[in-house]
Design a protein that fits this description.
With 644 residues, the protein is an alpha+beta fold. Among the domains are: 30-132; 144-232, no CATH class; 241-336, Arc Repressor Mutant, subunit A (Orthogonal Bundle), CATH 1.10.10. It has 29 helices and 10 strands. The chain has helices at residues 28-37, 54-62, 77-88, 104-109, 111-117, 144-155, 163-172, 177-189, 195-203, 225-230, 240-251, 259-267, 272-284, 299-308, 317-328, 333-349, 355-370, 374-390, 396-411, 415-432, 438-457, 461-489, 492-516, 519-540, 545-560, 564-581, 587-603, 608-625, 631-642, and strands at 14-18, 44-49, 94-99, 120-125, 136-138, 215-218, 221-224, 257-258, 289-291, 294-296. It has a 5-stranded mixed β-sheet with strand order 2-3-4-1-5, with helices on one face. Strand 9 (289-291) and strand 10 (294-296) form a beta hairpin. Helix 21 packs antiparallel against helix 22 (461-489). Pfam families: TPR_10 (PF13374), TPR_12 (PF13424). This is Tfp pilus assembly protein PilF. Keywords: Repeat, TPR repeat. InterPro entries: P-loop_NTPase, TPR-like_helical_dom_sf, TPR_rpt.
Length: 644
């Protein structure tokens, strides 16, 4: 019965006492220190490791206290336990330690029996039990100092411990007590394994590496390091739904995740109550950690799940489709950023070429395009195309992916690559879509943008004119479709697209006016700008972002044509709308301030102080959004310097 006090080392997530509150135990180390410090307070203490059923573990450990106790197989284990407790409860001033009580239902069931023993009882558990909430002390992990001491104690080699390497190990394993012991013993038993190498293997979760996964002995049991790790958790006790949720957690980022995100990704808001019940059961059993309204799993739990639960991608189809849904329906860069990390984690976990993964890659590519991270945007777009092509060379989603890739290349000023991708998209679309489909109009428009970019880049006026003419022809093709769609459907989306189409044509004529100094081009540019603005006012009114942009574009056209009063009127109107409807520090507001300052400088009747104030408003916003070498920011700063 009597065990050396130093043997007691709670490795659990929670420590708490029943019958009498012993102390507030803040960590496993402190619980050990408490037992050592309290040794003189007790005449006896008993240690029981709960490694089978609750009753059998206690009976098998304590039956030798009273030689007169005999197990009676004709009655239940619970009745035998009551008889045993009646025989030993007269042993006064005793402490019973129950280590590893991870089933709160059993603890609740035997609460009265435990209290009838009239001993002090200390229980450790991986779970967060409800049975003794008032006496529950949560222990998340060892403090760093004690964790280093534990590693040194089990490392046992005479050479000096590389503390930086050990600290890297501790952070990666989140100070997991049992794993500290396993890894320290692995380093002890393998003299060729340096701690820096061990830290690198742990960082990459390469526990199967031959230098790490060696045989060690822990608590008189011999096994390999990796097998010891797998024995820490047993998923066979879990329901199919609980196993599914653990699979989902494993492919998500290794971080705390808000419950409102989890329920959307796991169940898409359809079974919230069921989700909460399942996640709470996993938390109570110690598989999932809870911090307020955030949930996470320990890296070791993640490792066990990967190796002990089937990981066919078929299990993950709902999670993949849910992530694509929220990526597709995010309405702001903030929402995009929230779901981006989850989508990336999912698609990067799998090397499979499943269609659903292609959908997620396609959405991620578009988000990175919006964030101006073109290398990542291209990477995910090309993976999406590779996947979609496996399911056939002709499909609407494949055409969209090629179209997206063309737009990305155009932003990178890779005009030949952009042309190839967009022509491929157009070829597919013409084969499978009606001739007035909005995707065909969009591809015509994007091709027009490629040729417009090529024209602007060309130093040869004749070559540039050919590109401009090709661009104008393609924009006109897009306009023809958009005008037909608006006439036939009268939908706001068609009005929005047509307004953009008019604006694209206006930009072509504005380019031609500035390059060839032909005022007939300026007249055409103003005409199409006004058509765009009037359409937007008719369908959306003033308080609409595209309307504000159209006011701004009209103003810039007037500015380049020297019509400064009209330029100021339109730019100020656009600024007024943007300030009213857009968030503070939106880049469009900064650009409007900058354009207004340009007009004020050209007009020459505003005070320098007013001009500087306007430029400072622009610069203040741009500095929060752009890198220091952004051309528009630099131009605004240069104008400010000119004002003295």
């Amino acid at each position: 019965l009597l065990r050396p006090v130093g043997y007691i080392w709670p490795t659990a997530r929670s420590c708490y006492s029943v019958s009498k509150i012993i102390t507030k135990l803040n960590s496993p180390t402190r619980s050990k220190a408490f037992i050592n410090a309290s040794r003189s307070k007790y005449n006896h203490f008993a240690y029981v490791q709960i490694d089978s059923s609750f009753t059998e573990s206690i009976i098998n450990s304590l039956k030798y206290i009273n030689p007169n106790f005999e197990y009676n197989s004709t009655i239940s284990p619970e009745e035998n336990l009551i008889i045993l407790f009646q025989n030993i409860k007269q042993i006064s001033n005793s402490l019973l330690i129950l280590d590893g009580v991870n089933d709160d239902n059993e603890l609740r069931k035997y609460k009265v029996i435990l209290e009838g023993l009239n001993w002090n009882v200390l229980i450790t558990s991986r779970t967060i039990p409800d049975s003794y909430k008032e006496n529950n002390i949560t222990v998340n992990h060892l403090p760093e100092v004690q964790a280093l001491d534990l590693f040194r104690a089990n490392y046992g080699r005479e050479d000096e411990v590389d503390e930086n390497a050990v600290k890297r190990i501790l952070l990666k394993i989140n100070f997991h007590t049992k794993l500290i012991i396993l890894l320290a013993k692995a380093a002890q038993n393998n003299p060729l394994l340096q701690l820096e190498e061990l830290a690198n293997k742990v960082y990459n979760e390469d526990y199967k590496d031959e230098n790490v996964n060696i045989d060690i002995t822990v608590d008189n049991e011999e096994n390999s390091v990796f097998q010891f790790i797998l024995l820490l958790f047993e998923p066979n006790e879990l329901s199919d739904e609980q196993k599914l949720y653990l699979r989902y957690f494993t492919v998500l980022p290794n971080q705390e995740i808000p419950v409102e995100i989890l329920v959307k990704l796991f169940e898409k808001d359809t079974k919230q109550g069921y989700f909460i019940n399942t996640i709470n059961k996993l938390t109570q059993k110690g598989w999932i950690e809870k911090n307020g309204t955030f949930y996470s799993i320990h890296p070791i739990v993640r490792l066990v799940i990967k190796n002990k639960i089937s990981f066919s991608i078929d299990f993950f189809t709902p999670l993949i489709l849910n992530s694509e849904y929220y990526l597709r329906n995010s309405t702001s860069y903030i929402e995009n950023g929230i779901y981006l990390s989850y989508g990336e984690s999912i698609v990067n976990f799998f090397s499979d070429d499943r269609y659903e993964l292609g959908l997620v890659c396609n959405r991620i590519s578009l988000i990175y395009m919006g964030l101006h991270d073109m290398p990542r945007s291209i990477m995910y777009c090309e993976r999406a195309i590779k996947i979609f092509e496996l399911y056939g060379n002709i499909s609407e989603i494949l055409a969209q992916a090629y179209g997206n890739l063309g737009v990305i290349h155009n932003i990178n000023r890779e005009f030949e690559k952009a042309e190839i991708s967009l022509l491929k998209a157009l070829e597919i679309q013409r084969e499978i879509l009606p001739e007035t489909h909005h995707d065909i109009a969009s591809t015509y428009s994007n091709l027009g943008g490629v040729y417009q970019g090529a024209a602007r880049s060309s130093q040869n006026p004749e070559v540039a004119m050919r590109y401009y003419q090709a661009s104008l022809d393609l924009y006109s093709n897009a306009l023809s479709i958009q005008e037909k769609r608006l006439t036939n459907n009268g939908e706001k989306r068609d009005a929005h697209n047509l307004a953009i189409g008019y604006n694209n044509v206006a930009m072509i004529y504005d380019d031609l006016f500035r390059r060839y100094n032909n005022f007939s081009y300026e007249k055409m540019s103003i005409e199409y700008d006004k058509k765009s603005l009037n359409l937007l006012l008719d369908y959306f009114g003033e308080e609409y972002p595209l309307t504000a942009r159209s006011f701004n574009n009209n103003g810039l056209t007037f500015l380049r044509g020297g019509q400064l009063d009209e330029a100021r009127e339109y730019i100020e109107k656009g600024l007024q709308i943007r300030v009213k409807i857009l968030p503070d520090n939106h880049p469009d507001i900064g650009n409007s301030f900058y354009n207004l300052a340009r007009v004020m400088i050209e007009q020459g009747f505003d005070s320098k102080e007013k001009i500087k104030e306007t430029l400072l408003s622009a610069i203040d916003i741009m500095q929060k959004l752009y890198d220091p070498n952004h051309p528009t920011l630099n131009a605004a700063q240069a104008l400010l310097i000119e004002q003295g």
